[in-house]
Amino acid sequence: MSAQALLKHVSTDAAEIEAGQLITSRGPVPRHYDEFWTAKQRQMHSLHYANSYRASFKPELPDFFISRYTKPGDTVGDPFGGRGTTILQSAILNRRGLSNDVNPLSERLAYPKINPVTIEAISEKLDKIDLSRPVDLTLEEDMSMFYHPDTYKELINLRNYLRENRDDVDRFIEMTALSRLHGHSNGFFSAYSFPQISIPKANQAKINQTRCAEPDYREVKSRILKKARTTLKSGGISDLRRNSRHHKLTTGDSRDLKDWPTESVHLVVTSPPFLNQVDYIQDTWIETWFCDIPRDQVEGRIVQTPDLTKWAEFISATMSELHRVMVPGGLVAMEVGEVRYQGNLLNLDEILVSLTCSKAYNMHQFKVKEIYVQSQQFTKLANCFRVENNKLGTNTNRIVLMEKI
Questions:
Q1: Tell me, what's the pLDDT at 341?
Q2: Whole-angstrom distance, CA of residue 37 vs CA of residue 161
């Protein structure tokens, strides 16, 4: 089904676009264009920058909505938890947090951030872990295009240790190691690579060939410790651990948040997949390999579809489940973007608003209060990838704020 056909189908119950304005049966939906949170880099708590993660939003986004629409002690949820940005900011602001993701990797990234440990504890634990044990690399996954053999042996020993040791210090070490698995500087374990995505082995081999360089030895412990110091520099460890005592991390489908109590959530801040714009399985394959997460645990469970109708049905079912877990009058701030679909630029906020007005989807569950379009200037890196400011690609934050009816 085309975007126009879907919009027409779901808008028969009174959601239409007139001169660029969304009109529903409850009247026009205000669209606000501004820089609602600063575009400055890395100004929030340092734990937010522990890991790169594809398609994650900046911590300023959940901070904006949590600060404005909740009070200390309220519950904030995110059914697409990703690297844990929403639940971490909830802990920082002394709200109760719920975070869910269908990919088990999310829990491995988020738990250590809301249960941080001291750099002294990390250093002491690293000293006790023996990474020098012999390893028969012929029995392991071939990762020679990424790692020097001696680096790889240390990583295998660390992975084997973490299989059996899971206290909070161990888990923080694991999370930090995940952030160092691949990247473009000497601070990473790998040869020159991409920090945000796990590229295929053949692509990495081409990079090595182009650069006329093979992976050099990168000592593991010192790089973990250096990154951990940076990650923990904002402090507040005891406060975060205290605030996170009642937080909950779940792994499962966003359409069935069975471990989230009914009428318990005051605010949801989340960002679902944008059709198939990101391959969440391929782009994290090195991380899931290190964590021993079988591919079949995520393949087929993550909804990343090129079909707009299937995407709308998935989002609609998720919204129905959010309606169950929200308190009366609770708010959902859902970030979507603009995507290229069948040759046209499609604003997914328009699809989302239309769902709330359709009898076949989410009518009588939510009313749309307003839409925030975050406008900002993009970095040199974005310009290198030909992302023009607020014109092309998924380069604006478009947040639909909805209230439970």
A1: 85
A2: 41
